[in-house]
């Protein structure tokens, strides 16, 4: 059986205020074209179809278009809900949509009930484990101490129990949305930590032929049989080194796995630049980033004037500006209270301006600060009198 493994579409999400709906539509077109050209037998989507529980109408319309196009190909599609999705909203109409070959698995209670597909070598059972929030599903799975590992282990017990009732040689695929030990996170995934623990060991999934994971945005191979597809598009600058792709997986008659990465169309490259403003504007080596989405970290000791306007003159797609001045570190042994001891409010405020801007306030600015403190003290005096 040949199938496409993808996840974390996050339909409706922006990238630093840049609308990504057009890029998401381009990805859907690429997915459908790949499914047709590579003659896949199924598509699996491992959660976070939407970016939030109540997605914007345009995102819902794009999802509807994706379902119609996949159904039109006659390619069965199995989807689970992720931690960004509203499982109940995503699952509305699942029974009816099922007849069109689109199988939405959003109910934890159905974890042990597979979608059964067939190829020339026999049955393939696809089990959808939607994102399992421990506190919400502990009763369903009879778990005393809710945690990610405990609820996933209980769900996998149901999978293995059902698989044991199937005909010999039945192959198995599990879709899950979780943080599995060994995976490398990025800044754009929502934290799913419970009780200080978010990760679960890959061994939880033992006993199945392939585990199609979602949640982490970088494509990763934890084992030959346990993989993250990653998100098809970047959603934070921490993903600047990612290669956005899907897995094209072949499952042979004996359940052996071979996988190929299929690159996804990305609207623009990402670049994280660091240095003084003058260096960033002058360095000829940075010419290759002039058409990229840019995050610039300025190391100037004094904050330069109009940095964003000057940066965008060379890098018109600069989206994020960070200040990290190269300064000698303060004495870590000196407590905050000790550093302030004996200093007036005026001096503390002037120190703050110096720290943030890299230069001390001038005479006029000192006067503004003094007037502000005088006004506050006068207000406090009037309140005391009023009492």
From TrEMBL:
<comment type="subunit">
    <text>Heterodimer of SbcC and SbcD.</text>
</comment>
<dbReference type="GO" id="GO:0006310">
    <property type="term" value="P:DNA recombination"/>
</dbReference>
<keyword id="KW-0269">Exonuclease</keyword>
<keyword id="KW-0378">Hydrolase</keyword>
<dbReference type="InterPro" id="IPR041796">
    <property type="entry name" value="Mre11_N"/>
</dbReference>
<comment type="function">
    <text>SbcCD cleaves DNA hairpin structures. These structures can inhibit DNA replication and are intermediates in certain DNA recombination reactions. The complex acts as a 3'-&gt;5' double strand exonuclease that can open hairpins. It also has a 5' single-strand endonuclease activity.</text>
</comment>
<keyword id="KW-0255">Endonuclease</keyword>
<comment type="similarity">
    <text>Belongs to the SbcD family.</text>
</comment>
<dbReference type="Pfam" id="PF12320">
    <property type="entry name" value="SbcD_C"/>
</dbReference>
<dbReference type="InterPro" id="IPR029052">
    <property type="entry name" value="Metallo-depent_PP-like"/>
</dbReference>
<dbReference type="InterPro" id="IPR004843">
    <property type="entry name" value="Calcineurin-like_PHP"/>
</dbReference>
<dbReference type="GO" id="GO:0008408">
    <property type="term" value="F:3'-5' exonuclease activity"/>
</dbReference>
<feature type="domain" description="Nuclease SbcCD subunit D C-terminal">
    <location>
        <begin position="267"/>
        <end position="355"/>
    </location>
</feature>
<keyword id="KW-0233">DNA recombination</keyword>
<dbReference type="GO" id="GO:0006260">
    <property type="term" value="P:DNA replication"/>
</dbReference>
<protein>
    <recommendedName>
        <fullName>Nuclease SbcCD subunit D</fullName>
    </recommendedName>
</protein>
<dbReference type="InterPro" id="IPR004593">
    <property type="entry name" value="SbcD"/>
</dbReference>
<dbReference type="InterPro" id="IPR026843">
    <property type="entry name" value="SbcD_C"/>
</dbReference>
<dbReference type="GO" id="GO:0004519">
    <property type="term" value="F:endonuclease activity"/>
</dbReference>
<keyword id="KW-0235">DNA replication</keyword>
<keyword id="KW-0540">Nuclease</keyword>
<dbReference type="InterPro" id="IPR050535">
    <property type="entry name" value="DNA_Repair-Maintenance_Comp"/>
</dbReference>
<dbReference type="Pfam" id="PF00149">
    <property type="entry name" value="Metallophos"/>
</dbReference>
<feature type="domain" description="Calcineurin-like phosphoesterase">
    <location>
        <begin position="1"/>
        <end position="218"/>
    </location>
</feature>
